[in-house]
Amino acid sequence: MSRQLAIIVTLVAGVLMVVSGFIKPTEGWGEDVAEWFNILAAIAFVLGAANIAKVHLSKISARDAGWGFSAITLLAFAVTFAVGIMKVGVNPMPAFPNVAMSGEKDAGGSAFWWVYTYVMSPITATMFSLLAFYVASAAFRAFRAKNTEATLLLVAAFVVLLGRTFAGVVLTGWIPADSDWAFLRFENLSTTIFEVFASAGNRAIIIGIALGVAATSLKIILGIDRSYMGSGD
Amino acid sequence: MTSATASIMVSILGMADEASAESFFVSGRGALFGWLAIISVFVLVSIVMARGGKVFKVRPIAGLSAVDEAVGRATEMGRPVLFIPGIQDMDNVQTIAGLTILSRVGKTTADYDAQIEVPVSRSLVMTAGREALGASFLAAGRPDSFNEDQVYYVTDEQFGYTAYVSGLMVRKKPAACFYMGQFFAESLILSETGNSIGAIQIAGTAETSQLPFFVAACDYTLIGEEFFAASAYLSGEPDQMGSLRGQDLSKALVGAVLVLGVVAMTAGALVGGLDGVTGFFQSLVGG
Predict the structure, then answer these.
(1) What is the pLDDT at residue A142?
(2) How many CB atoms neighbour CB A87 within 10 A?
(3) Which of A40, B104, B166, B176 is deepest in the core (most CB within 10 A)?
(4) Residue B237: per-residue pLDDT
(5) Could you tell me the pTM of the whole model?
(6) Are residues A193 and A148 in the same domain?
(7) Which of A80, A108, A125 is where one domain is finished?
(8) Preferred mutation among A23, A216, A226 to probe B, highest tally of B CBs within 10 A
């Protein structure tokens, strides 16, 4: 019964979203459905928080590999939650000077703001910066000229790399920009590779994706594919 | 919406005049509506044909053929299988496609009696993932082997999630890693970490900007439409195969329109006097 209800809700929400894209009086319905989803997601977040506590407490209890990280996670979660919910360090809003907790929890100078600015942001930036090293190692592996395709990839990558840097401009700068051979300048070759070859391939992939999204959405809306909710077989 | 489309709407819906149709329908979406209707008809007719016993052939997709190999390897090595259904929520079709593949991979995992771990970055994905995986274990005849803690929530924060999964990979060294869903900058961090621990890696996404990273770091990558075809390929159910056939027919039509459009526009530019034809093709793409 609950599964049939889920299928009906999916059908109604899906049809509303499609209809709102084409019929003027229903244009706002799509946004309403998105709002319903946000409300559901907010409720589900409680489940997520409870699951975090359960998973990490059991890891600490069992002394699993990396249990220390679990302890830090729980401590960080508790502290951030506490300073956010109690609005530690938040100044009252000018409109309500006598109401202690009237300010925004993430207002500048509050404890929650401090945690986000001086703990969360640097950690996130650190993870993101690791990407530079991973790009280098992946490129090293991908650009080894093992066969014809890999060699073409290597040459194209080399041209694009040179075309996007000062070195490439200097190397082919002797070719006059207004001559018939100007297309051989690295910056022009790089642009051609991007705008012609890469664009053509990318558009072919995007067309396939669009059709795949349409067909998958249709299957989900009509309840033909239910495996994502555990009833496919 | 073009006047031609408005006229069709007027006749279909019995509206008083074109002006009322213009005010009723969102302008500029006539071509999109037409394409949507055509694709839907192709998919639905193909599904009906498949239900009627028509057998459709699907070309082998290397990445999906390797699912058994990857799970089998994990079983032999006594290591877990890691499945990441992207980092987006249940309102994203790629997440749903990822969970559909999870249900197939989960069944294979249950068949092999291997361990599977599914850390997710959204609470709703956790609940849906548990349903999908639980049903897979049930279908495999091993409901007792299913533990709902195999699917668990980590964090909504993109790089917090990436850090957790990377650490998990280094500590537990899964033998097979599946990345199926929508990914952003974390795609390369995850797949390179998986590569460094020697795992078999299979990725699938419709996020074109991340495809090169997966291709570079993973053993197999489902590119765009292959990702959405995975469910049909793995299940082999008539309905699913029918939808795949409908998708291919739509692609053939789009390809034909593209070629004819290019020829018409080129001919129009060279010889002129083809405004009617070129205008028709422009209206097909909403121009």
Answers:
(1) 83
(2) 20
(3) B176
(4) 86
(5) 0.90
(6) yes
(7) A80
(8) A216
